[in-house]
Amino acid sequence: MSFSFQIQLLGTNSALPLYGRNTSSQYLQFGKHHFLIDCGEGTQHQLQRYQVKRNLISHIFISHLHGDHVYGLPGLLGSYAHFSRSSSLTIYGPSPIKKMLSTIFEASESRFSFPIYIIELDHKKAVHLNIYQTTQITAFPLKHRIPTIGYRFDYVPQERNIKKEVIKQYELTIEQIKRIKAGEDLIIREGKVIKNKDLTFSKYGAKSYAYCSDTVYDEDIIPYITNVNLLYHETTYLSDLEKEAKERMHSTLGQAIKISQKAQAKKLITGHYSSRYYNLEEFEAVAEKSSQDVSIGSDGNIYNF
Ligand SMILES: [Zn+2]
Ligand SMILES: [Zn+2]
Q1: Residue 15 CA: which ligand is closest?
Q2: Separation CA 294–CA 24 (nearest Å)
Q3: CA of residue 95 to ligand 2 center, whole Å
Q4: C-alpha to C-alpha distances, 137 to 59, 61, 224, nearest whole angstrom
Q5: Minimum-distance ligand to the CA of 13?
Q6: What is the pLDDT of residue 161?
Q7: What is the CA angle 87-90-95, rounded to 5?
Q8: Which of 114, 180, 189, 242 is 20 to 30 Å from 225 by CA-CA measure?
Q9: Can you give the pLDDT at residue 293?
Q10: Which ligand lies nearest to the CA atom of residue 235 in the structure?
Q11: Sign of the C-alpha dihedral, residues 56, 58, 62, 68?
């Protein structure tokens, strides 16, 4: 099974699909896990277009229930049923996502060939989701017109590999190798200990990704996104529309850059552009001038981290 850390943007427009930009969704490969974040209308078309193996997706994280983030979900679930998916699917999101989906399932008399678990998260405080031992997922509050949740994904390396030269150097037995892999130090003679960190290595260091859409500029989120390798933060507008951004509870590119710098995120990816922007040249110009590493996201873009 492939092991990588990669995000692919499936939609970068706000409100509605326009100018070749779909509504919000992202496909996240996190170690050996496959996640979908948000599922705006048309997401399953994008999954096909970019040849994502959608059956691998085990968990879907929904930020909020505005249509441009969730209207693709019933269609995607229907297609899974059509193709006789058998593995379970867990969907996280704010209340009333359960009511929203169950009303649709009931009205359309939908039957599913696989278990669907819908878990409503508290949108007012940070919640740690214990799904996998090496993957810590934190849901945290964003400020938007309706209950909205951001997500942070952290990979905590636990598996350590033994250095090849060490096996030769100390003529290690299978039993010793097992113990070192489990984290023990090596005692080579009385009083002489070789530390585990000098005997082993981890293929991947700590990795982290945070997703913030939709939200007004809010410094309260900084503790949740500090030091991430990659930060996605919505940039619905350019800086001249800061007033509109505040009124509609969205952010500007300048504000997203500011937040990413304050949080010491290594790289910022943007998206959720207003339909008033036919092309993103002005966004590109601002990004180029910034001292922060900023990538103006567009549909299909892939980022490894
Ligand atoms: Zn939106
Ligand atoms: Zn919204």
Answers
A1: 1
A2: 19
A3: 15
A4: 12, 10, 11
A5: 1
A6: 86
A7: 155
A8: 242
A9: 98
A10: 1
A11: positive
3-class DSSP assignment, residue 13: strand
Token representation of residue 107:
């009205």
Instruction: Convert the pLDDT of each residue in 76-88 to its tens digit.
Output: 999 999 988 999 9
Distance 172 CA to ligand 2 centre (A): 58
Q: Is-contact 43 9, C-beta < 8 A? A: no
- Ligand closest to Cα of 148 equals 2
pLDDT of residue 1: 62
Residue 157, Cβ neighbours under 10 Å: how many?
A: 14
Residue 196 Cα to ligand 2 middle (Å)? 48
Is it the case that residue 190 has pLDDT exceeding 90? no
Q: What is the pTM assigned to this prediction?
A: 0.90
pLDDT in tens, 223-264: 999 999 999 999 999 999 999 999 999 999 999 999 999 999
Q: Name the band, by pLDDT with cuts 50, 70 and 90, for residue 204.
A: confident
Other Cβ atoms closer than 10 A to 252: 23
Which of these is catalytic: 38, 68, 214, 299? 68
**CA-CA distances (angstroms) from residue 107 to 83, 104, 227?**
21, 5, 45
Ligand 1 centroid distance, CA of 87 (Å): 29
With 0-12 / 13-18 / 19 or more C-beta atoms within 10 angstroms meaning exposed / middle / buried, residue 269 is buried
Mean pLDDT over the full length of the chain: 95
Is residue 199 pLDDT above 80, yes or no? yes
Q: Strand 207-212: give its sheet, edge to edge.
A: 127-132, 135-142, 148-155, 207-212, 230-233, 268-269, 294-295
- Backbone angles phi and psi of 190, in degrees to 5: -55, 125
Tell me if residue 68 is catalytic: yes
Ligand 2 midpoint to CA 272 (Å)? 10
Q: Separation of 68 CA from ligand 2 center, angstroms? A: 7
